[in-house]
Design a protein that fits this description.
It comes from Methylococcus capsulatus. InterPro entries: Peptidyl-Arg-deiminase_porph (IPR007466). The chain is of the alpha/beta class. The chain is built from ten helices and 17 strands.
Amino acid sequence: MTSIRFIPEWEKQSAVLIAWPPGSGDFAPWLEEVEQTYAAIAAAVSRRETLLIACLDRSHERRIGTILANTGTDYCSRVVFVRIPYDDIWVRDTAPLSRLHEGRLELLDFRFNGWGGKYDCADDAALAARLVTMGIFGQTPRVAVDFVLEGGSVETDGLGTVLTTSQCLLNPNRNPGYSRVEIEARLMETLGTDRILWLDHGKAEGDDTDAHVDTLARFCSEHTIAYTACDDASDPHYAPLKAMERQLQEMKQRDGQPYSLVPLPIPQPIRDGKGRRLPATYANFLIINGAVLVPVYGDPADAVALERLGPCFLGREIVPIHCTPLIRQYGSLHCMTMQFPEAAGVSRP
């Protein structure tokens, strides 16, 4: 039998990729504030591993370098700039996913269709192939997969279990004509999974990804899942998140034992200029070497989330990152990053 393993986020990493927002992009009205969040993430990552920064051109690279220098980031030794076109900055969904195939690292390039045809995405759809062609990952092979899948829509325990949501993967705007059985077969074939745990409830208001699992429930280890919870019966999230919580409570590990579940509170509503609620959750954290970067929003629930996540990641520093600027474009910290495992052998293009 062919051995395939989808690599979990907590294993040793070589690099994290981010795509810096350009001055003419969707973040233009809040660019300086957004760039401060990016600089904080850059500092936290580059202290621990290589940081790949996608930028549009030499001028963009110089601007980023100045910002990093002004915030004390030693970007000369641990930061690699990659000049490459991109439509949006949410590389969790456009960069390649990492798997081991017969013990050898491969980068999976799934099709990307702008989260179900919602946005123009020609450059984003080509991002993974272009990154590999540039030689950033050495001789690591790219495997093109004719199937729409975004990185934020799947979680793994590294042991063959995938956690996902039916609202996203079964949505006809992704792979029309595929049945649930056929979608499961593609995940098993490409990710090596032999167990798929489906969440049928829960969505962060303002989320335009059709309920990516990385806003709702995350593996912290093979045995522990942290999840977005709501105890305010007046909040529209209350009923669907309670239903999701009940599903999580019913899920079992391979040995038949229930998962250790860690509820993360949902912050008070943060709204845009038109009064629409933005998708702020603490589940959108990023695990890196020696640390976990956790989005915070200037809310009293920040402290609760940080305190609850600490015991889930013993030996890693819990680093809060102010992410209110990011959710103005409907994503948060995990959405705008992608990690690559130690075997990726990241190098300068």
